[in-house]
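ok so i was messing around last nite and threw this chain in just to see what happens. nothing serious, just curious
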Amino acid sequence: MSDYNAQIIAEFRANHGRVGGNFEGAPLLLLHTTGAKSGQERISPMMYLRDGERWLVFASKAGAPTNPDWYHNLTANPDATIEVGDETIEVHAEELPRAERDEKYAEQAALYPGFADYERKTDRVIPVMALTRR
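result:
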């Protein structure tokens, strides 16, 4: 885990799910996945969009040409765990179909314009994963 992520995770846990810096005021969760190749637990802090009973997460990787590792981990092992605030929740992940993905990604980009920038920077379609309580 990078030092940057480790610092965010520690701050998240010390402050009931709130962090400062680039994420100040943004909805943030910690996604626990199982490594697709290693089988080891991985923890990734990320912004989310609450959608009814689901948490939507965006495999933007800041507009990089490839999907983030956590996306590959979730597609290989869709049962995962999230930390939201002080709560730990077991979830199941599913990728949104294209039409719903486009709608939800546009909603996230309207709230947080950096997501529109990520989309402009890459040729790939940025996947959106729905996390639903198990």
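not much to say yet. The mean pLDDT is 96.
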